[in-house]
């Protein structure tokens, strides 16, 4: 059994967000969950999926994702970052590729990060599919 | 021409979020935009649509939505609120109905609000369709 790793302390929201995507690409569940706040109010929404609330539910959702065969690679584009002393928001367009470089699709992601006693941690990841173009008529089925 | 309304000051994130949904239901573009921060970094994603960034782009997206015939009614469920002194996050399940009470669908929404000199204002609204059930396999096409 490998020795337990000491959770890293992320000193900026960007560091925590970068670590999130690195853990996603590495399919490393412990590294992934070290980027999240250990809180019952954390929220995770994968593209087209249901909302997961709470540390255990979020962990379970990533465990399910990481059991699949496909390795994913993320390239973030058009990043918007808003930061205050205690909470930060990162909005980005995610270009998602499979490990063999084929494009899986484009998503928009809203990541919310909180400064905790253990450094910056993610409290919300909301990703959803988006059209490839940057300008299109607003015609969603809901709003 | 009606006299210009003085923009309201929302003293809590919840007040601003409530005003957002009231303006959405009333299809009142001025009331809607009074809930947003007047900033080039605000972000709005309607379900299935592209990301709109900046006050003018966000205003234009709501103008397009409000020209349609269908009046929408929102009922928020399972609300999670995280609040710090300067920034807050509201996550909710949106049950969207048409004015005639028929259900249009269910969305998950992440709203981020910032405390500005003019009170709490929205800086991000990200809504996306979600399955009706609360537990389902994670099998989105992207992640």
Q: Explain this structure to me?
A:
The structure is a homodimer of 143-residue chains. Chain A is of the alpha+beta class and 143 residues long. Chain A has three helices and six strands. A six-stranded mixed sheet of chain A has the order 2-1-6-5-4-3. At the A-B interface, α3, β3, β4, β5 and β6 of A face α3, β3, β4, β5 and β6 of B.
| Tally of strands of chain A | 6
Largest interface: A-B, 55 and 55 residues
Q: What is the assembly state of the chains in this entry?
A: homodimer
Based on helices, strands and strand pairing, what is the structural class of chain A?
Answer: alpha+beta
Helix content of chain A: 10-25%
Largest sheet of chain A: 6 strands, mixed
Helical region count of chain A?
3
Distance N to C terminus of chain A: 51 Å
Looking across the biggest beta sheet of chain A, what order are the strands in? 2-1-6-5-4-3
Helix-strand topology string of chain A: HHEEHEEEE
- Cα-based radius of gyration of chain A, to the nearest Å: 15 Å
Q: Judging from the principal axes of the Cα atoms, what is the shape of chain A?
A: globular
How much strand of chain A? 35-45%
Low-confidence stretches of chain A: 134-139
